[in-house]
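Rather than argue in generalities, we have chosen a single entry, letters for residues, whole numbers for local backbone shapes, without further comment.
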Amino acid sequence: MRVLVTGAFGYVGHAVTRALLDARHDVVAMTTQPNRSRPSTGVSLAVADLRDPGRLKAVVDRADAVVHLAALTRVRESFEQPDAYATVNTIGTRNLLAAVADTGRVMPFVHASTAAVYGAPTKQPIDEDCDAAPSSPYGVTKLAADAAVSEAAARGIIAGVSLRAFNIAGSVDRRPDPDLTRIIPKTLAVAAGRFDHLTVNGDGTAIRDYVHLADVADAFVKALTLATAGTFAIYNIGATPAGVAQIIDVARTITGREIPVQYNPPVPEAPELRADTTRARSELGWSPVFSSLEQIIGDCWDAQR
């Protein structure tokens, strides 16, 4: 299958592209930069922008399926730039779906969604039937993108799937996560001496769900294969609940280095956010293989070095 991958050059995009190639798909990496090098051997390039419907139509017309990863993803930044997030994440997704509709062919469309659409529900673990209540512009725009995918599936345009990933970490091909607003890469950057200390709000006991990048990529491949025309499915992708204090302890063990921590007063936050992945396991046949906290942090450390 000839798969168009938006966001193919990102942290998640590289891993998904490799997994698609391993599954013997033909991969077309979409980029806004015409002089960019190919992300992997065997990948072809297509120049287009989610904000440019005309260019999208020409690119999508040559595809058999779409994996839509391109997005703005930083929660705090989304409060400062809500219009930019709406333009890329929501309107961009609608533009992409319109380009698919123009082909006249029903194709698999797998959207990279996020657990941020749930907000902070009290019932744990979180399943896909949980009422969405995003608490950031980022979450709002991704929920709206999910709705656009659902509407397109209901109209018979696509075989739609949204994967709501929790906290993605780890590394594929020793490529580091460049986003130091995330706790694991920031912790390891402190261990590597790039920062003097790690700042933690509260006592570090709040639980979040982590999943290895390679397991996320596997979920995309499985979703692409099992997507059904005219339907829309949502799957949570998560694996290992852990607190910040636990992450720091494992990081100290793996790196053999001290990680100075500055503890700030606690901020209002959910005490735990854990993924119920029953649906992904039963319907997609997906299960995490690489998502122990030790492997996630160990692979991140290898990538940072």
About this structure: The first strand starts at residue 2 and ends at 6. The chain has a mean pLDDT of 95.
